[in-house]
What does this fold into?
Amino acid sequence: MNTLRNKSILFLTTLLLSSLGASAQTTGGVSEQDLLLALIATMIVVALVSLLLVITIMVLVRQKKAALTPEAAAAAATTSGWSWLKEKLTDAVPVEKESSIDMGHNYDGIRELDNNLPPWWKYGFYASIVFAVLYFGYYQMFSDWSSEQEYVAAMQEHKEVRAAYLARQVDMVNEESVTLLSDAAGIAAGKTIFQANCVACHGADGGGNAIGPNLTDQYWIHGGSIKNVFTTIKYGVLEKGMTPWQDILKPGEMQQVASYILGELQGSSPAAPKAPQGDLYTPELEKEEAPDDSTSVALAVQ
It folds into this structure.
């Protein structure tokens, strides 16, 4: 019996140490994901080894008790596997034998019994100690992990998620929410779209020709704000031959074109500008005519 127990303990110890050694060897020159996988694999091995150790000890204990007396052997033979396992995991004393563990403290009919801790609790506690050793060894000895690195990685992930979100929001813009872009990338993208789709009617420099009006002066037929220009691009002007671009360009692309027109072409000097058409657009006048918040609230109340 002792030889079998010693061999079992030696086997389990060797398996545990080999798993720890494998985990330590994987920390050199591999990615953080590989290290995490190695840690998870080690934890699984430890859990399996712990379970195997518990089962081995329970089997040895059962064999030892069954060999003591014929009565014990008969009881073990008639006990089902689940009942026997439940009994070993709880280590509960039968009610008829509680007098053997009575500590003599009785208060209002409540007696104090000297019960053992449930084995499942003790084994779980031992397993937590093993996990703590592995956790400390991995993060403090075999890994270059730090809370600062985790913070930097989390912030980088947040930036990527935010960039993806903003990219989706670009195509959700409409004539009410559109704003004038000022970033170089957006203006450059608008210029590319303009040169590919708009030069036939407005000229490469925006000066206009026989079909399209001049886009470089301050005169506008349908308004010169970013919302007006975006709306004109989106819905077109069919009676004058301008195609509605809402089925061809994405909302973000129409915003880029409108921003290029107002940010780059507006105020430039084309080679042969077309005569002004429409009304003079004054941004300052538009701001003066827009009601403030208090006026909007008053109108809403009325």
Observations:
- The longest helix spans residues 32-66.
